[in-house]
Amino acid sequence: MLNFPSILESIGDLDKTQIDGLLKLAEKFKFRTSLTTNFTTTRPVVATLFLENSTRTKHSFFMAIENLGGRHMDFNAEKSSLSKGESLEETLLTLYSQGVNACVIRSSDNALLNPLKQNPPLRVINGGDGTNEHPTQALLDLFTMQQWEGEIEGKTIAIMGDCLHSRVTHSLVKLLPMYGAKVIISGPRSLCENYAKSENLPYVEKAKDCLQQADIIYLLRMQLERHQESFGDLSQYNKDFGLSLKLMKDVNKFVPVYHPGPCNIGVELDLELLRSQYYRGHEQVKHSIPMRMAIILAMLENGDKTVGTFANLSSY
Ligand code: CP
Which carries the bigger pLDDT value, residue 300 or residue 230? Predict the structure, then answer.
């Protein structure tokens, strides 16, 4: 796994050999939860810089860093000098000077990471940026699918719901076909049809029709905080596009339901489905830790050693 990128902004930053390496490393870390030093240098520091709320991503990175034997800095964006107008680049250079080696950034801004791509001041992992991408979520989803459903080659994976505003969808449509899966898009026309067309993916409107075709469902919540216009009645959305345990049982095959979380019970799914054997969301959360351990270790140990040396300071 040589030349791992210094900034993981998109699935497109990785090639298949690198992703295969991450999957292998995650497999190795699957049962390892005790604190062991895995680094060749003194315990590195990884900061989590979350400008948007998170339960899963932030805390699983925290656990992953701890499990690797690294140190964690919980950067408090609201109380930081970002609120006084300091730029992100200057903030990261400041963190670097304090000994931080890598940073996980979550933001609602699609373009926030763009200026960092040429000369990152330290290693940067995208923890979800607006409606752009969520590459580490997609990687842990692939890892979980392989663990639970076997190889995904030849399988049909239906991404259902608010595909237009889903950053994880935008990473999954790049990743899953690399492993031979066929991706289909399903949900309301306004949130899916043009998106499917733009990605050259089949579109199936109704959940029931989609369930007949799919081997795996990847269900999304309505990401209303990212909508430009009001969507309307969510109880009608639930009737038209929501999944229930009853609907799953009506299909004459077992179709597991993945969900990146957080879930909105009574909107995209019902409580009975969430608590049933169909639901894989908690397995995704479990598998997020070994996959994020793999990502951190690969980036810190196999990346460009000149990153964070101030070599490119003038570009800021
Ligand atoms: N899947 C995901 O990104 O969840 P959080 O927003 O809780 O991190």
Answer: 300
